[in-house]
User: Fold these one by one.
Assistant:
Number 1:
Amino acid sequence: MRVIMAVLGLLLSAAPAVPAPADVLVIEKQPWTGALPQSPRFAPGRSGLDFALVPATGSKGPTLALLGTALLPKRFGETYAGRIEGAIRIVAVDLRTGELYENSAEPRNTVPLSKVMNPNPQPNSSSSSTTGDDPVETYFNVDLRVQLGIPTHAARYAVFVWLDELMSPVRLAQLPGESLTGRPPKPVDGAAVGLHFGVTDQTPPVGEGIALRSDGSKVYGIVSAAARQSMFRVVALDFRSRSLSSLAFALPKREGAFDFDLSVLGGADPSATGPQKTFVLVGWGTTWSPVLVVDRGSR
């Protein structure tokens, strides 16, 4: 028996080491900036917002790291100067509960962007942080769970990055954790939160997805039959206050058109001067409308 055990010990000690799991990014500080090998790159002549999601370990355990890339026209640099990461919004919608989580890509406890941005930069402004027509490029990275305050249970999210009229592709993310039991909440009654349903003279033509148009502070939308789902979210970003507001709603059966006034979402700063704009999205899962820019004038 001793001989057998000795031989077994020699075999085990000589066995090759168990391969390590797939590379997992270790987040030592977050958020952080700078390009990583997994960060998306834009092809020559292209610009916009994009991101990659990679498995990671952070301060609260297993998570996903969002590695973002922004290549933007010069005017964004003139408006937000060195605070592009503060202007960018990272949004995640829980596909089971409908809950929305969002935050900028900046560290917490920074000076509010609304107090330092230049909402109406002039050509050749001395405050411009760029020269010529050079685009603004930045790489921003966050622990998705920590930065957005997402709960520790396992869940599937629709994730995108948003900056005013620009939106990244929408990607599905599975965050690790213990399974959540119980039934998801029932969809919200849209009429109870200020939405009206039915086609009007202002309803945009129906396309293949979700179409929006505005008239003053009213937003009119329609969902094609192919894009209908059990729940939708309307999300509004106020240009001056940088406040993001949102509500979830369900479409009545056999109805695809809706409208609402932006006042039901709030978010605007009544004391702000200069351009007054709201950027609006409606969608669910990976199907979202193009960004609607509601220009409320200037004061």
Number 2:
Amino acid sequence: MYKSIKIEYWTLPEGDDFDGIENFVKEIDKDYFLTVSKKRTDALGGGLYDLVIEISEDLSLMELTKSYIQDGVKLYIGYQAKEIYKVIKKLFEKNEDLHPTVEQISVKFKDCKVIFYEVYENGIEENFEEVITKLIQVASEQKIILKKAKEIHIPIFNHKDSNNICKYRVKLNVDENISEFKKVDYLNLWGIKTKKKEFVYNVPKGKLKKKKFCTQESYDDLFYSV
């Protein structure tokens, strides 16, 4: 797998594109193969000009855990996210009228994908490096489960949704009933998916429980099946 950055966002069919998007593309680190996809939608409301970013790395989470002390790989991934945010901020400053945000950032390792959700403004940027550091520690302590992990969702919440569909879940795009999100959320509960099972990891307690949790996609599936 090669190192790449994939960025997606939505506009209205006749909506404006980002002013300065060409310069944005040029400024992204050339060490990564960059793909920027603009999609058009007739849907009104949230989601327009919200960036979804996926960074693909050419190592596994387990390889990262073994080597980060010796060669600084952990710091490089953190550095890369910071550099991307510098360029994003320039783009957003030019396009304040579009109210752009970063909705989520995924780091796609060879063995699993780690998905960071923007639960409050600049939440991912503010917590990214600290969470990566903690993730490496957890991976070394929970090797049996983390070796099998296919997805890690950060953060999730133990909070009943408005429709009483699920207890553990990510922040929802619609009808979210949690009134306030904080920095501590990123190091509180994580959702872990293996090929066949789901787990909730309590970060402060260092405890892993076999529990189902909802992503936005699985929540929508349950909502529309009722």
Number 3:
Amino acid sequence: MKKKILVLCLLLLMTGCTIVRIDTTSIDNIVDVVLSKDNSLYNRVGIGYKYYVPRGVTYIDSNETNDRLYSNGVYYYLYLNEIGYYYKDSIKYEEKTYKYYSRKIQNGSKIGYLEITKKKNLYLIEFVYNYAKIEALVPLDDIEMTVLNSSYILSTIKYNKNIIKLSLDDGFLTTTEETYDEFTSKKESNSFLNYEKE
């Protein structure tokens, strides 16, 4: 009986879960760890795309392929490049040493870059990855959290090629207009004067 309990305890210890710790003080570590995971989560769906909005980030509104998100005083502006995805456009980026942070990112077939530029007392984050771009203007203390949230959003974007192909057709959103006037009659009627003449 003691041997069985000992074996069960050893088995439990050896088959424990693996935890990946994200060091949130290093931008490089945040980007590398989050983008290396194959996430299939999503909780936001648009025409031709879907993605995951992390806890603490709120979806505000969208205008076609531009979404606006909010978290802890920071607005995120997300642009989804569906046309670039459909035609498999490539991104050419050269790292810039004069920026606060500049890095080219490549993870398999997905490429992009992360660039942080100081603008007076704030920092402009431009994160391009997976045919999408997030821009945010943040204070220095919020850079790491903004990069973390942006990494989750950009890494979970999935496109629907069939819907994008339909939306690129010329007749996708065409409508027909019909003039409607409520004060005119649809059928012809004989007036009273015509009746009098007869």
